[in-house]
Specification:
Length: 420
């Protein structure tokens, strides 16, 4: 029985928001004594004489705390606890079993079905109030957690809306970026140029293309801007305008020649002009690598510059593959860099291939890269393959190398076939 003498010494102020408590016991006297203590401590109390009655009340009302006797006719306190936990309530209810059982096995069984705490009968008022305060702390933490979860859910909903909006914008940005390389193949008479451009995400930092310098000279370029995403895509858009054959007056590589004939800066000067522009005019944190080549359609002479880009490949008509270039520094890192001009010669049937590091650094499942050696082997096996089919085959080769995983970096390249 509850020690009534101790009740008066434990009367506390009522909580600001009184908790609803359900007292379940087949003894009316025991219920009244417990209810008296609870009401003196500021709780809203309801009573039930059986487990069935208590369960029906719990279906209609969310109780914060339940005090239930273990041994009752009909549904026992243990079965009532199981059923109570199965009810579809959003709020958590703190469940205390009142029992004369003290064996560890019995206590473990009660905890296993969902009880939070135990009180041994006869109930001591001091101990009861201490257990209720512990329950209050748990309910408070649960309420706080639920509120935080609600806020997180609301925030996630807002973030999802923002993500969906950004996703739509990025899809449109990708469509616009694809127009930067509108011509995927062009026939220049004595040679053809074909390009490959596969962004790894919505938008990428790779740019490939070609433009006509004059009736006998063609320029090819492959650019890889540092980083990924919108900032890199915006830089590629800027660079595309500076390497456009459709707007020669804006093209950083072109210059007026004798009697107004179109001419171009040597490749090493094109790289130097870009480097000065990045450091002095743009003053951004980005940099880019580039391979830029000029091909004479009559003689097959190639002049190119390699600025931190993978080595250009020459695929000979006889089936051999040669790497050319010496590496060089990226554009936009250091001032006053001297870029080196590299020269080569194409013979009829030879091809020149400029690729980004998304090809050479494409990783396998074990971490190994495709590498320049892997690219050489592929080109030897496909030396007789038509240009556009060869580029498509390269994508399939890289897809097999990654085991079907998404490419972690943009894959791009420009392939020039010299007819002579």
């Amino acid at each position: 029985m509850v020690s009534v003498g101790k009740i008066e010494r434990n009367v506390l102020r009522a909580p600001l928001t009184p908790r609803r408590v359900l007292v379940v016991d087949d003894s009316k006297a025991q219920r009244k004594v417990l209810s008296l203590s609870l009401m003196r401590w500021g709780y809203q109390v309801m009573e039930a004489g059986t487990g069935e009655e208590a369960l029906e009340m719990c279906r209609r009302t969310d109780f914060d705390i339940v005090l239930s006797d273990w041994v009752m006719p009909g549904i026992s306190g243990l079965d009532f606890c199981k059923a109570f936990r199965a009810l579809p309530h959003e709020r958590y209810g703190y469940f205390i079993l009142l029992t004369s059982k003290s064996e560890k096995g019995e206590v473990a069984l009660g905890l296993d079905v969902g009880a939070d705490d135990f009180l041994t009968k006869p109930v001591n008022a001091d101990e009861l109030h201490a257990r209720l305060r512990a329950g209050e702390r748990i309910l408070g933490m649960h309420r706080e957690l639920m509120e935080k979860n609600r806020l997180i859910g609301s925030t996630l909903g807002e973030l999802q809306k923002l993500y969906d909006s950004l996703d739509r914008d990025l899809i449109e940005a990708r469509k616009l970026q694809q127009t930067l390389a509108r011509d995927r193949h062009r026939d220049f008479g004595r040679g053809t140029a074909s390009i490959l451009l596969r962004p790894s995400g919505h938008v990428g930092g790779d740019l490939v293309g070609f433009f006509e310098i004059s009736a006998r000279r063609v320029a090819l370029y492959s650019v890889d801007v540092s980083g990924h995403g919108v900032a890199s895509a915006m830089m590629t858009a800027r660079l595309a305008g500076l390497l456009s054959g459709a707007s020669p007056d804006q093209n950083i590589a072109l210059t007026g020649g004798v009697e107004g004939a179109r001419d171009a800066w040597p490749p090493e000067m094109v790289a130097a002009r870009f480097n000065r522009m990045m450091l002095e005019d743009m003053q951004v944190e980005q940099y880019f690598t580039m391979a830029y080549a000029e091909v004479d359609l009559e003689t097959g002479r190639v002049q190119l510059v390699q600025a931190g880009h993978p080595h250009p490949m020459v695929i000979r008509a006889a089936g051999g593959v040669e790497q050319i270039g010496h590496g060089g520094l990226p554009i936009g890192l250091l001032p006053n860099v001297a870029f080196e001009r590299i020269e080569a010669r194409l013979h009829p049937g030879d091809r020149l291939f400029l690729v980004s590091d998304g090809v050479t650094e494409c990783p396998a499942l074990d971490g190994g890269e495709f590498g320049s050696e892997g690219l050489e082997r592929f080109l030897r096996r496909n030396a007789d393959t038509e240009a556009q089919a060869l580029l498509e085959a390269l994508v399939w080769e890289l897809n097999g190398h990654t085991g079907g995983a998404d490419f972690p970096d943009d894959v791009s390249g420009v392939l020039f076939h010299y007819r002579g």
